[in-house]
Amino acid sequence: MLSPQLQQTIKNCFKQFKQEIPNFVTRREQNYMVAQTAKILAGEYDRTRRIGVIEAGTGTGKSLAYCLGAIPVALSQGKKLCISTATVALQEQLLNKDLPLFRQYSRLEFDFAVVKGRQRYICASKLELVADAQSSDDNALWHQAPSKDDLTLVKKLWQAWLDKEWDGERDSWPTPISPLLWAQIQCDKFTCNKQLSAHRQCPFHKAREVIDKLDVLIVNHSLLLADLELGGGKILPEPADMFYVIDEAHHLPEKTRDFSSAFSSLQATIDWLKKMDLLGKKISSTLNSQQLISPLMSLSDHCNELSSDLTLVSQWLNANSQLFANDDMRHRFEHGVLPDSLLALIENNAISSKAALKQLNKVHQIILEAYKDGLISPWKIEAVLSDIGNNLNRMENQQKLWHMLKRQDSKHGAPTVRWVELTDRERGEYLIHAAPLDIGYFLEDKLWSQAQGVILCSATVTALNSFDHFRRSVGLQTNDGTQYVRLNSPFNFKDNAKLIIPALQIEPSNDKFTEELIKRLPALVDNKQANLVLFSSYRQMNQVAKALRDRHQLSLLVQGEASRNALLTLHKDKCDNQQRSILFGTSSFSEGLDLPGKYLTNLVITKLPFAVPTSPIEQALAEYVKSKNGNPFMTLTVPDASRKLIQSCGRLLRNEQDSGTITILDRRLVTKRYGQSLLDSLPPYDLTIEH
């Protein structure tokens, strides 16, 4: 419960913001979000289920609101606050702007930092090993031949680390580091072990020591999910010792599904397994131990079994080549059900991969124990641990994939999505996938039921004015104690933005729609200085761009022709110099693109953002809804389009002074029954429907 003292602390903080922050604007919606965040986390509504879902419209000031609502509660209870985001941009905003500002004016004492996963740091011993090898022109340690630039950069990285001019974090190095080079030197859980004295000063372990001193941790969704999968408390503090704020929460279902998925290429895996005997020989030459004989022999046997089992799967797929006689060269198993003949082979793979993983873990442990006992020198252990670590990662993925493929799905839940892609016909290479359709059980088991409290927030959580779509997607149940709060944006949409639906005769489903766009767009951007045109597909965008350049000599900035940052810089430069700028983009430009004031006054949306169910997961979702006598289009497609349309329209007004026009060139908003629902879910723009 919110004690009188805690309530007063929050009130005092807010009073100081109003008095001391220059140009601070008091917003009723922000005040309400502060109060609701604090009440939910303090257990005012439910002492055992402290979960809140908050939609806060653009301009609410949600970052400051959840900081003010959550940080005092966490500090008063001796808990940590974990803020999870989907994008680097928001992490940087929290680290460099929001939290320093909050700490300065709240007068509250707390420490905060961004917490990153192992893969963002070097393993100092790995870097030294590769740098030494590079000095002697020995590239045997590399998984594939390095470029001259990589070899040069290795020396620079090592020297910078020795001179304490670099902290070993990938993001802090001033120039890009290639994926090949980074894979050679990044920290991993198998090699960079704190038990080894050479690794105790590695940047990852030093960063982890700081966590205990932090009061507020900034993470991304992937790191949060990685910790939860391990049971919580392995990378981050225990869930029971933390309050969570999950910002950009609308990304959580997709991020969780991607994280819980597994895939593997058959032939590439078979080729890898053939090299496992070489690993065994390398290990034996490094440490002559009787303890290694049995696990290495068993490892070899199980790898050979797995290789044979994978070959049988490959032969089964080749014998059923008609499954891939389609444009995508892909086959999804209906309702996730595998044929008995294939399932038997997959079960063998699950057994073999599990047994091989067990023996590889034994070998890893024996090597570590030998090092502790002084039976192996530090310079010898590094190379062999690096190899074991890489192989353990791959074997863990094998075990996860085949287990997901073979496990029996619950009759009461959604099935696992199982599909195969033919990626190289000549080589007979197949990519096998497994992904959970329902990720709610994972979040319920690992987070909702374990955390001290959770606030999920975003500017777009609802779809068609309802939380139901999001609630189902993250596994929250009706009347389970979760609180739902919807806060409108404080912007004056009616006076500041016009929404126009022109009187087009052709709808997007018509083959002539692209030509209609080519005909209409020049007039829509004429005499407009800052333009953003959003398309639903790259192909259509490029067709329209080519035609407008050829026929109308329009100067365009087109997504894909330069980096996102370069395009936005050019766009802003044009606007600053009073020149017309026309920026073309697809769905990735409809979210997270911040063009305030003069940088965007004319937004054109060419087509409603309906997702075509082409991916196996989307197809499986539609299939599952249909099996329950539901309508996939109305249950999945329309709500998803509603959320995306709100995001797209949200590019126009970024602050209270912004103004401009939104034009949607899709008459289905008027001609289809669902159109009115989509319009009703948008902010109250000044709407004009042309006839």
Provide a descriptive summary of the structure in words:
- The chain is α/β, with parallel strands linked by helices and 691 residues long.
- The chain folds into four domains: 4-110 and 215-256 and 452-487, 3-Layer(aba) Sandwich (Rossmann fold); 118-206, no CATH class; 263-436, no CATH class; 493-689, P-loop containing nucleotide triphosphate hydrolases (Rossmann fold, 3-Layer(aba) Sandwich), CATH 3.40.50.300.
- It is 49% helix and 13% strand.
- It is built from 25 helices and 18 strands.
- The strands form three sheets. The chain has a seven-stranded parallel sheet. A seven-stranded parallel sheet has the order 14-15-13-16-17-12-18. Strands 6-9-8-7 form a four-stranded antiparallel sheet.
- A hairpin with a 4-residue loop joins β8 and β9.
Summarize the structure.
This protein is about 50% helix and about 15% strand. It is α/β, with parallel strands linked by helices and about 700 residues long. It starts with a helix and ends with a strand.
Which features characterize this protein?
691 residues, alpha/beta, Rossmann fold, 4 domains
Describe how the helices and strands are arranged.
Layout: H1 4-20, H2 28-42, E1 51-56, H3 62-76, E2 80-85, H4 88-106, E3 112-114, H5 124-135, H6 148-162, H7 179-185, H8 203-211, E4 216-220, H9 221-229, E5 242-246, H10 252-260, E6 262-265, H11 266-274, H12 276-286, H13 290-319, E7 330-332, H14 340-372, H15 378-406, E8 416-424, E9 429-436, H16 440-448, E10 453-458, H17 468-473, E11 483-487, H18 493-496, E12 497-501, H19 513-525, E13 530-534, H20 538-552, E14 557-558, H21 564-576, E15 581-585, E16 602-605, H22 616-627, H23 632-649, E17 660-664, H24 668-671, H25 673-681, E18 686-689
Parallel strand pairs: 1-10, 1-11, 2-4, 2-5, 3-4, 5-10, 12-17, 12-18, 13-15, 13-16, 14-15, 16-17
Antiparallel strand pairs: 6-9, 7-8, 8-9
Helix pairs in contact: 1-3, 2-3, 3-4, 5-6, 9-10, 11-13, 12-13, 12-15, 13-14, 14-15, 19-20, 22-23, 23-25
